[in-house]
Amino acid sequence: MLLILCALYYLAPLYVMLTTSVKTLDEIRAGNLLDFPARINLNAWQKAWNGACTGVRCEGLAPYFWNSVKMAVPAVLISTLIGSVNGYVLAHWKFRGSEIVFTALMVGCFIPFQVVILPMARLLGLAGLSNTTAGLMFVHIVYGIAFTTLFFRNYYVSVPDELVKAARIDGAGFFRIYRSVILPLSLPIFMVCFIWQFTQIWNDFLFGVVFGGTDAQPVTVALNNLVNTSTGVTEYNVNMAAAIIAALPTLGLYLLAGKYFVRGLTAGAVKG
Q1: What residue ranges are annotated as transmembrane (predicted)?
Q2: In 3D, which of 145, 162, 142 has the Cα closest to residue 102?
């Protein structure tokens, strides 16, 4: 019973957002916040997608949504792959100073976003990537590698050293062991990193507003601009529809792969 009450408590805002997004403005003003709509109206969704104003442009969230897709998908894949190789090295190919490297990466996980803004802006300027989707993707890759390396290293230490040693005795090299021994065991932790990185990157606002130019802004920045753009009347239904559109990818990812997230986090908790 307690779990049901907790679930209802956390689902209540989503219910309000969904019902408000399919109401007309007149119905919103006249009715109760929790009332179910008398008739489902999807005009607010259409306007939020391709007609709402986000500042001086009235193109809706569509172009910014695809900016986020073009930024998030490659950044997630690249940072996860690099973190996987790093974690494999730190867990099974230790070298002199590897613990120092691992400690430095752990420290990197706790560096606030605000600390890296100025040096990253300088670096992007020198590389000619300022105000571009590629530059924003690069920022998220660099910032995410510390987290993915930490996840993979802690997972790979649970893989018995005997497997790696046996493969080395059989003549397998670094990449052959990674491809044939480590990679087949890595699905749970890959799912953890995919979900973690995608959520962090998709929901990021600070990097998007600082490093994203006018044509490279992600959907979170556009959503903020949409809500704060005044055209005389506050369209609550459009705002709610826009918020749900912006949240749909991460919500869908958790619904489809949430069980792998918990399984991957606990899989490396016990060695052996």
Answers
A1: 71-93, 100-121, 133-156, 177-198, 236-257
A2: 145
